[in-house]
Design brief:
The chain contains no helices and eleven strands. The chain is mainly β and 122 residues long. The strands form two sheets. Strands 2, 4, 5, 6, 9, 10 and 11 form a seven-stranded mixed beta sheet that branches.
């Protein structure tokens, strides 16, 4: 079965940096796109950034210039480099991937990681 495992969250001070990782594993034919979302307490889950298999990226306006998404296709892993962190970046960050399972590669299914807490102290 396909699963996404996230790591890299933690507590940092304002202006600090963190790097999140999300590794997809299981019976995977291909990964078409991966991305990061975040959800603060009491808020909706919002898009942070995405990257396609071809390398196209997009970012929420709130993180442009500070966050960078990258992808290692050979490792089925996506990263989120977060710099110049602000208290408003505090949230649970969720990895997402659009995956074609190996046993049903004509389909495109959305998978979510377990979430990792990012806390930025002021």
């Amino acid at each position: 079965q396909v699963q996404l495992v996230e790591s890299g969250g933690g507590l940092v001070q304002t202006g600090g940096s963190l790097r999140l990782s999300c590794a997809a594993s299981g019976s995977i034919f291909s990964i078409d796109a991966m991305g990061w979302y975040r959800q603060a307490p009491g808020n909706q889950r919002d898009l942070v950034t995405t990257i396609t298999n071809g390398g196209s990226t997009n970012y929420a306006d709130s993180v442009k210039g500070r966050f960078t998404i990258s992808r290692d296709n050979a490792k089925n892993t996506v990263y989120l480099q977060m710099n110049s962190l602000k208290p408003e970046d505090t949230a649970v960050y969720y990895c997402n991937a659009i995956i074609r399972p190996a046993d049903w590669y004509s389909s495109r299914l959305s998978y979510w990681g377990q979430g990792t807490q990012v806390t930025v102290s002021s």
